[in-house]
Write a structure and sequence with these properties.
By secondary structure, the chain is of the alpha+beta class. The protein folds into two domains: 115-241 and 430-540, NAD(P)-binding Rossmann-like Domain (Rossmann fold); 244-425, Sandwich (Jelly Rolls), CATH 2.60.120. The strands form seven sheets. It has a seven-stranded parallel sheet with strand order 8-7-6-9-26-27-31, with helices on both faces. Strands 12, 13, 15, 16, 18, 21 and 25 form a seven-stranded antiparallel sheet that branches. It has a seven-stranded antiparallel sheet with strand order 14-17-24-19-20-22-23, with helices on one face. A hairpin with an 8-residue loop joins strand 19 (333-339) and strand 20 (348-354). Helix 6 packs across helix 12 and helix 9 packs parallel to helix 11 (468-481). Residues 421-531 form the NAD(P)-binding domain. InterPro entries: Galactose-bd-like_sf, NAD(P)-bd_dom, NAD(P)-bd_dom_sf, NADH-UbQ_OxRdtase-assoc_prot30, NmrA-like.
């Protein structure tokens, strides 16, 4: 299309746009032989002398057979997303050619590190967990209080966070970047009243063999406050089982985004859309978002879209596998565009989705399906999609797809797409992201009719040990209530025997006995890969017997 504009007549309306800016030789020089500038899904021809300009409107009327272009709406669009326009920067960005290829080479996929954090990594169970993970070739990061001790025990090259879960200020968010799973082996320290050898020989034999007392921080501080701090530190990285709501209305929850129209007016078209909140439009009669408008191919246009302003803080969705939309379809194909750069005119990671007419649908769009698109062409060699740095979202209804393809469901005229929610999701089957080592017997201290003389020391001495099991149970409840996919492992008396030793236990709620720390470590690692272990609490050694029989945790 041709945008036939007189720079002289535009002067009164374009404050900041100088005649020299519009006619600068470098800006009007184009590598394209037909002097067109691609933007988003179609083309915008370079400025030429107009036939005429209507005096009382901001519409620029093109040559015969073409419709008027609403230049005022064009400026409003730029202003909404970019603030006051900078003419030189904007036109230079339009005219600059973005090098890309339409070859058939595959698009690069995003890689993820999926670091496993081990807390309490210098303890009896924790250091064995680190060893098992390393032998599997999995990336490990440890959280320890004593750097020197950790390096001596785990090696000088260990990926380490020096911090204390009882001190929230030491759990700096940057330390946990890349952490996708956690095995928590932190526990309050219990030792012999009479003291121990330098290598803690008495402690290693198990609590049954000495008169115990709390050493160091209290159970409340470690098992409850510490757990609360740890969950807060890792929650964003490991994610929530039910996903993260980015936009929409869900029960008592609501999240809104700063949507604005971004239509083909930016390249001379006349299509127009808006985003509204329909207070009774959802499938339950509550509020829902509504993307609606009229699309036209006049002036070589053919798309409408809504785009969010750049988020003030980029969304980190690296814990999730994609975006899930709840929409009421109209039989048309739409696009979702995700951007990881704050720049106005940049690569958009794009995928299409089809809708069913007059039906509410849940549509899942994996991050792996996103294709780097710039000006309707695939950008091979583009940076891989980074789900930890999402800057904006865009929904589009367009005549165009990419690389010359057209939308087979496109029809000109009015359309609407109710959107009740947009959320990040975890794909099925979901496996535990947080494995917590607790203790058998946590529910027993307050159990009526219990013969304490037959119970392990921790149950008998719960009060004397500052309510150790009571606060361990409170810590478990924090894990369950966090929304993080979890497994809780409750071992009995821990020993230094190798994994595979004979199991001594009683079945049911009164389980007692002993188990090796090495066996506990192996089960914790196995739980991370088992959908069966999701949101379960296992008592050991009962779970160990089943584990060995390969019924679960494989």
């Amino acid at each position: 299309m041709e945008c036939l504009c007189s720079t002289t007549n535009l002067q009164p309306q374009l404050k900041g746009f100088s005649k020299n800016t519009l006619h600068h030789h470098k800006l009007l020089s184009s590598p394209y032989s037909t002097q067109f500038i691609q933007l988003n899904d179609t083309t915008f021809t370079s400025l030429r002398k107009p036939t005429y300009l209507r005096a009382k409107t901001s519409s620029i009327v093109a040559e015969s057979g073409k419709q008027g272009w609403d230049f005022g709406r064009f400026l409003k669009t730029l202003y909404y997303f970019n603030g006051p326009p900078s003419p030189a920067k904007f036109f230079a960005s339009l005219i600059g050619k973005f090098s890309n290829s339409t070859s058939s080479e595959p698009v690069k996929n995003m890689g993820t590190s999926d670091i496993i954090l081990v807390t309490g990594a210098t303890g009896g169970v924790g250091r064995r967990v680190v060893d098992v993970l390393r032998k599997k070739g999995l990336p490990v990061r440890v959280l320890v209080r004593n750097e020197e001790k950790a390096k001596k025990m785990l090696g000088p090259d260990v990926d380490m966070i020096v911090g204390d879960i009882t001190k929230e200020s030491t759990l700096v968010p940057e330390y946990f970047k890349g952490v996708k799973k956690v095995i928590n082996a932190v526990s309050v320290i219990v030792g012999p009243k009479e003291g121990d050898t330098p290598d803690r020989a008495k402690y290693s034999q198990g609590i049954k063999f000495f008169e115990p007392e709390i050493k160091g921080d209290s159970p409340e501080k470690v098992e409850y406050i510490g757990m609360k701090n740890l969950i807060s530190a890792v929650k964003k990285g490991v994610g929530l089982q039910n996903g993260k709501l980015l936009f929409g209305y869900e029960g008592d929850l609501s999240t809104e985004l700063p949507w604005g129209a971004l239509d083909d007016v930016v390249m001379g078209g006349v299509s127009e859309s808006s985003f509204q909140i329909d207070q009774t439009g959802s499938e339950t009669g509550g509020p829902t978002g509504l993307f609606k408008g009229v699309v036209s191919t006049a002036n070589n246009g053919g798309f409408t879209s809504i785009r969010t302003k750049n988020f003030s803080v980029p969304e980190d969705l690296s814990a999730y596998d994609g975006l899930e939309l709840r929409v009421k379809g109209n039989g048309r194909r739409y696009k979702l565009i995700v951007r990881i750069s704050p720049e106005w005119d940049t690569v958009g990671y794009t995928t299409g989705f089809d809708t069913v007419k007059d039906e509410w649908q849940t549509i899942r769009l994996p991050f792996s399906s996103l294709r780097p698109i710039f000006r309707a062409k695939t950008v091979f060699g583009a940076p891989p999609f980074d789900a930890s740095n999402i800057v904006s979202l865009q929904l589009m209804f367009s005549k165009f797809e990419y690389d010359g393809k057209l939308n087979p469901t496109f029809v000109e005229g009015p359309f609407q797409l109710p959107v009740s929610t947009i959320r990040a999701y975890m794909k099925e089957p979901i496996t535990p992201r947080f494995v917590h080592v607790s203790s058998a017997g946590v529910t027993r201290p307050d159990r009526p009719g219990l013969d304490l003389s037959k119970q392990p020391p921790a149950v008998r001495l719960n009060k004397e040990l500052d309510f150790i099991l009571t606060f361990k149970l409170k810590g478990e409840d924090l894990v369950r209530e966090s929304g993080i996919p979890y497994t809780i492992v409750r071992p009995c008396a821990l020993t230094e025997e190798p994994a595979g030793a004979d199991l001594i236990f009683e079945q049911g709620d009164n389980i007692t006995g002993k188990i090796s720390r090495e066996e506990v470590a192996r089960i914790c690692v196995a739980a991370l890969e088992s959908p069966y272990a999701l949101d379960k609490t296992f008592e050991q050694p009962k779970v160990t017997l089943i584990y060995r029989q390969h019924l679960i945790l494989v």
